[in-house]
Amino acid sequence: MRPPLLYHLYVGATAVLVPFFAWIETRKLRAAGVPIVRAHEKLGHATAMREGSGPLIWFHAASVGESMSVLSLIAEMGRQMPRANFLITSGTATSAKMVANHLPPRTVHQFAPLDAPGPLRRFIRHWRPDCVVFVESELWPQMLRLTRDSGAKMILVNARLSETSQKAWKRRPKTAAFVLGTFDLILTQNDEMAQAMVDMHAPADRVARGINLKSLAAPLQQNPETLAKIRTSLKGRRVWVAASTHKGEEEIVLRAHARLLLDNPDLLLLLAPRHTERSKDVAQLIEDQGLSARIRSKGELPGNRDVYLADTLGELGNWYALSNAIFLGGSLKPIGGHNPFEVTLSGSGVISGPEVFNFSETYAEMTQAGVVRFVNDDAELAEAVDKMLNDTALMEATGRAARDYVRGKSSQTSTIATRLIRALHLQDEVR
Asked: Which residues of this protein are catalytic (predicted)?
């Protein structure tokens, strides 16, 4: 298919603007503590070698959630194909730090190159990927086109686009067909998204329903030393967790905690905002509510305070281990929700607001399995937490349901890996 005019204009614009975007991206990574040599990976300058004589399979994900969702899949594909090597790329410093602690064997991480001719050509020339798996909504036109032109097989997994993105692509049917036509296979999270991809001019014979890869992720990492210190500081106090909260949600959570303290005066709220840079604002909200707090980023322990502000990255696994009453944010405001699998992997059920459209099918399954309870305001949130803390039978039943649900999902990892291996024509690499 011939490239449409809009694609040519896009290529020309990125070629001109690449110095500007390179400056922005490298500055952002440097501010996050990334060494300058690694920040230059954004320009296609590799900091690792292509190893081995077997095929190189490149996984590209946007940020933390998408990156973590494919690690178990990479590990399983690596088990089935002992000669294969893997490259995972992402765009953020946070994702790089998280992935670095969980890389499967024969896997390296690099920052994804900018979607511009020079960086992409340098990247592809160095890595020479045999196959590429793009995750969720990573539809960078030049990255897709130049990778396709290199001869690599390409799959889009966990495909999910917002309604806004769908409308934007539908307004440009020739460009959408050109971009989506690069894929040999598109696996969506559900039937609705499969139809949306076809409506966006993806080749209908290459679109199929898959599963949400986030259900295959490994449990969040825990630090035994950290947990021991926190539990010693708590001295037996009970805890409930509000995780990945957003602006406008902390007020609701804090009002719910104030209600809970009336009958549970020794109860601790462990509050973990989604964006840690909002720590000062959240601390002020706690003070405005008349509650006392200790702050994790200052090295403090919860002690006898009302709230423990967990404003650090990569520690949710520790916090989920402390309680069976877990509220997952991004759901009381129209944000779309966050990954509920991380909660169920800890053996707990999920308390959630109603705004979970990014995980609608997942939450429907979890509701049927008895793993989730929905709340709409601070009163309902307080009631749900109180029941989970004080109704032993409910707590045990919900925990069993969560573990059963996770076991059912985890068993699919091998099946999905085999499906991708076949789609990428890598059967000869299977031992």
From this structure: 66
